[in-house]
Specification:
heterotrimer; A mainly alpha; B mainly alpha; C alpha/beta; A: 14 helices; B: mainly alpha; ABC transporter involved in vitamin B12 uptake, BtuC; 11 helices; 2 strands
Chain lengths: 326, 293, 395
């Protein structure tokens, strides 16, 4: 069990790491790779959000691409109507969250592949509406010259902004995981009947998780607007939702750090493989299969096991790991 | 008026038959090993490319040999899928297995472009553009072939499941793999055979649509999704469900695009699906009480 | 004080730190600052943003063939001012704004290109526009969506006829010369299709003609039975179709199968070899606003046919030819540029006047549009033939 002090130490370490990255990266990376990191951070936020409902809650949601798009379009449309950037940002995230509730409520009874298809249908419908409602969304041409916070294309300042948002998202996820509410959520993931027997309000928690994933997705959408200054329905197509699923699973379901690792690898590995030109996606698909085959529980678990093995030498007596408490 | 309806219904049924063939593959694999193979639509595409790109275009085999050769190669591919993609993740959480199939999907879609180039291929098939007049309406002869093949297939499959030992072994493994193993069935082998069979079904579907549409690397994506929806509509895990679900979905798309709106047809079809899921998630035939071990 | 309870897990701060440091180190290797070069003989870098992957990989392949041929030619002739030209190719992954921006930034900041050919698709070039303006590097695109040159970005040049102009010229021909009426419209629901059909609608409205029915489809739509029957029910005698290659082939094929009799017209896709291969004689009689057809008896085009065939073993088609011209335009601009950098090349491109390319003659307008004329063609015997040439500002 992690004590409050441990958790605090973990969070402080995360802040230190983030600040270190912010200081170091712009010095060693060219503009292009800074841009890649910027895109990666947006994927991290998406993966953290999906991990909420998928990893912590055990609910298969394939709607993350829709929340990404809803947040992005809501922000762009609100700003185009004259709302100042901070208001539009909050409005967009709230809008996405509300839609998360609207999705989470009717699908309460669904599980497994039924839930998967229902959320996928939602993602498909949202992406089609983006194209069809062209009076509102600009249609397939998308929305151009989004002002955002005036940093579109400016990869270094955007790095700081994105690192800040990602840090908040990450901290939120970690705090939630280790909070009493987070434990209850993971209880119902592991054993629904027992959780209900203990009196947990499973319905409220399920809807809450959808809202959480939608809020994260919406925030990622707002960040995308700020970074690129341009959105089109192509960015939020229903097929992209499977990428976010893969990030969370490869990184390690139910682990905030896992979501970070999965998103990072999923964004960076294709870049490393670019030299293969036409063949790089074939290689990447193979890499995904190999990683999943070797580490089906996700990479975060692997890292944890390695770390434990490395630090095990320190403990002097034969207490089990679960009792190693500070 | 009849003419119109005949054309709409037949084209809807023909598309639906294709969905049904792919949905069957989903159902068999799900029943056997409890995972949803998201690469199934891309296996359809692979079958089409193998039959058209390799066997017909490169080796100039006559059509029947091309079909037969493709089925054999797809069976081998199915076994490879079982060994390399399913087997390593057989004890992993379901989501890990799904992600493995997503990786396979990516490999297939990009792999065919590497092998056969990015240009879509055309295929005359057994009937080319020949049409037949039914009740005053002109329809592709190929539609009738698709429907005939589906019916023959279902009959043959029933026969195999009931009267051959391998078919019975497949049914037993699908119902309860543990019990089947205890009864002496070599379940690992049977699972590989099920994958091979599902791959053959997908390849057959690809071969059937290739003359109507084109063989291209993106032909699998939408088919995957539609077939998955067909399974749910008919009742996930049920074989007659996959069949009926596919045909019904094809009809909805065809009639809906004409009578309601072609712009919003996907929104309508999937909105309907969403409603079905909320109000009757077990679909038309319900799901047999089966949990993944 | 309430303790946060949690399942057993060691303090995991070291892992993300290590992981990210390793990532940073690996990324830094190629990202390290480029070393200074002797500029007098150093290669001149130009970039190509093309779809090497995705279902549009065919398009990328043709673009690449055209551009590489132009670069090979100029290097064989000794380069520009004694400097060889080096082509950098990056994948924009099809219709993918994120991918397009990645490719553009890589070309500009890593490969230091002075100009970019491509990307081809409207959402991709729209996504690139802010970066092009920020880093002052010009791009030449074959995207035809009108909005591409409507925002006044001085760094975007278009090497094909703007769809606003193209649609107008086609509609005028159909209504005034062929006296079309009872027109149905069909378009693909993408930036290209929406932009094109909007221009068609605008011109029809200007001529006081109301389309009897407007329908849309996706690139992935395979069966058009419902839509074609709906057009018939609505009383359409003629169809104007603005769509991508596969749908264009399928729609024409299915019109024939269903035994429907429509007059057909549409965008240049009707003249492309892959559409003709797929639809065969089903497109006979169809009119199109096109730019390039390889069996044009014009001597220049016949010479180009020979050259391309010698290099690639196949006849040239529209995209390979257009992007060959685009590359030649860039190379010509580099020759004329006061300074060989993004801004210098941009200024030279903006001054392009009457540059004779393979496809047509290019002159830069203030909007960045460089093409102002096209061909009306009609398909006969499964091949397009030229009916007349048309240009903006005249018939």
């Amino acid at each position: 069990m992690m004590s409050g002090r441990r958790l605090l130490a973990f969070l402080v370490a995360s802040i230190i790491v983030t600040v270190a990255i912010a200081l170091v990266l712009p010095q060693v990376l060219g503009i292009y790779y800074l841009h890649v990191v910027d895109v990666m951070l947006i994927n991290v936020i998406l993966a953290l959000g999906l991990n909420m409902v998928l990893g912590f809650g055990g609910q298969i949601s394939l709607a993350q691409s829709a929340f990404f798009g809803l947040g992005a379009y809501a922000f762009a449309i609100m700003q185009a109507h004259g709302w100042p950037a901070p208001v539009a940002a909050i409005g967009a995230v709230a809008f996405s969250g509300i839609l998360g509730a609207l999705l989470g409520w009717p699908v309460l009874r669904l599980r497994g592949h039924y839930l998967a298809l229902a959320t996928l249908a939602f993602a498909l419908i949202v992406s089609e509406l983006m194209v069809n409602l062209d009076m509102l969304t600009g249609g397939a041409n998308g929305m151009m010259q989004i002002e955002g916070v005036g940093l579109a294309g400016n990869n270094q300042p955007m790095l700081y902004v994105l690192l800040a948002v990602t840090l908040v998202a990450f901290a939120g996820s970690v705090i939630f995981a280790y909070s009493p509410m987070g434990l209850r959520v993971r209880a119902f993931r592991d054993d629904l009947i027992a959780a209900q027997a203990v009196g947990l309000n499973v319905k409220a928690m399920k809807i809450g998780l959808f809202v959480a994933s939608a809020v994260y997705g919406g925030a990622a959408g707002v960040c995308y607007c700020w970074l690129q200054g341009y959105i089109s329905p192509d960015v939020f197509g229903w097929q992209t939702t499977f990428s976010y699923l893969s990030m969370v699973v490869v990184g390690g379901l139910g682990s905030s750090v896992g979501a970070v690792i999965g998103a990072a690898l999923y964004t960076l590995v294709p870049e490393w493989l670019r030299f293969l030109q036409e063949a790089y996606f074939v290689m990447f698909g193979a890499v995904v299969i190999i990683v999943i085959a070797l580490v089906p529980g996700g990479l975060a678990g692997l890292g944890a096991r390695l770390f434990k093995r490395l630090t095990r030498a320190r403990s002097t007596d034969a207490r089990s790991l679960s009792e190693q408490e500070a | 008026m009849t003419q119109l309806l005949v054309q709409l219904i037949l084209s809807g049924l023909a598309m639906g038959a294709v969905y049904a063939l792919v949905a069957l593959g989903y159902t068999l694999i799900w029943n056997a090993v409890g995972i949803v193979n998201f690469a199934q639509g891309d296996v359809v595409m692979l079958g089409a490319f193998v039959a058209v790109g390799a066997l017909t275009n490169m080796f100039h085999l006559p059509i029947i040999l091309g079909l037969g050769g493709m089925l054999v190669l797809m069976a081998i591919f199915g076994v490879a899928m079982a060994l390399l993609v399913y087997y390593p993740v057989r004890n992993a959480p379901q989501l890990s297995a799904i992600v493995a199939t997503l990786g396979l999907s990516m490999m297939l879609q990009n792999g065919v472009v590497l092998v056969w180039g990015p240009e879509p291929l055309s295929f005359t098939g057994p009937f080319g553009n020949a049409t037949v007049t039914l009740l005053g309406a002109k329809i592709y002869t190929q539609y009738l072939l698709i429907l005939a093949v589906l019916v023959l297939m279902m009959v043959a499959q029933e026969g195999m499941f009931r009267f051959t030992s391998i078919g019975r072994a497949m049914r037993a493994t699908a119902q309860d793999a543990e019990a089947a193993r205890l009864m002496g069935i070599r379940t690992n082998r049977v699972i590989a055979i099920i994958f091979a069979y599902a791959a053959m079904l997908a390849g057959l579907a690809g071969w059937l649509v290739a003359p109507l549409f084109y063989v291209s690397s993106d032909m699998g994506g939408k088919v995957s999704l539609d077939a998955f929806a067909a399974c749910i509509l008919g009742g996930f895990g049920s074989i007659p469900g996959a069949l009926i679900g596919g045909l019904v979905l094809g009809l909805i798309e065809s009639l809906g695009a004409f009578y309601i709106s072609s712009e919003y047809i996907d929104v309508i079809a999937f909105g309907l699906l969403f409603a079905v899921l909320i109000f009757r998630p077990e679909g038309i035939f319900g799901e047999p009480q089966m949990e993944r071990p | 004080m309430r303790k946060f309870q949690v399942e057993q897990r060691e303090n995991g701060w070291a892992r993300p730190f290590f992981a990210l440091s390793v990532c940073a180190a690996l990324l830094a290797t190629p990202g390290a600052a480029a070393s200074a070069q002797d500029s007098s003989k150093a290669p001149i870098p130009i970039g190509l943003s093309a779809s090497l992957t995705s279902q549009f990989a065919q398009n990328g392949k043709w673009m690449r063939q055209g551009v590489e041929l132009a670069v090979k030619e100029i290097n064989a002739a000794g380069g520009i001012k004694g400097r060889p030209v080096k082509l950098y190719v990056e994948d924009d992954q099809g219709v993918n704004p994120t991918g397009a921006i990645n490719a553009a930034i890589k070309l500009i900041t890593q490969d230091q290109v002075v100009a970019i050919v491509g990307p081809h698709f409207t959402p991709d070039i729209l996504a690139d526009e802010p970066s092009l303006a920020q880093y002052k590097v010009p791009a030449l695109t074959g995207a035809t969506g009108p909005v591409v040159t409507a925002k006044g970005n001085p760094y975007v040049f278009r090497v094909r006829l703007n769809d606003n102009a193209g649609a107008k010229l086609l509609v005028r021909y159909l209504t005034q010369v062929r006296h079309w009426d009872s027109i149905g419209l069909s378009y693909v629901n993408t930036a290209f299709g929406q932009g094109g059909i909007s221009a068609v609608k605008g011109e029809l409205e200007a001529e006081h003609i109301k389309p009897v029915l407007v329908q849309t489809h996706m690139d992935s739509t395979k069966d058009y039975t419902s839509q074609l029957l709906a057009f018939q029910k609505a009383g359409a005698k003629n169809l104007i179709i603005w769509t991508d290659d596969q749908p264009m082939g399928l729609i024409n094929k299915q019109i024939k199968t269903l035994g429907l009799k429509f007059g057909v017209a549409g965008n240049g896709g009707l003249t492309l070899p892959n559409v003709l291969n797929l639809a065969g004689d089903a497109t006979n009689g169809a009119y199109s606003i096109a730019e390039f057809i390889s069996n044009n008896p014009d001597a220049g085009i016949q010479a180009w046919d020979k050259k391309y065939k010698a290099a690639y073993g196949e006849e040239p088609e529209l995209y390979g030819s257009v992007y060959y011209d685009a590359a030649k335009l860039v190379l010509d601009a580099i020759k004329r540029a006061k300074t060989i950098d993004g801004k210098g090349v941009r200024d030279a491109l903006a001054a392009t006047k009457d540059f004779k390319g393979v496809v047509t003659t290019y002159s830069a307008a203030p909007t960045g549009d460089m093409v102002h004329s096209a061909l009306i063609t009609r398909n006969e015997n499964s091949k397009p033939t030229v009916v007349k040439s048309v240009s903006e500002g005249g018939q």
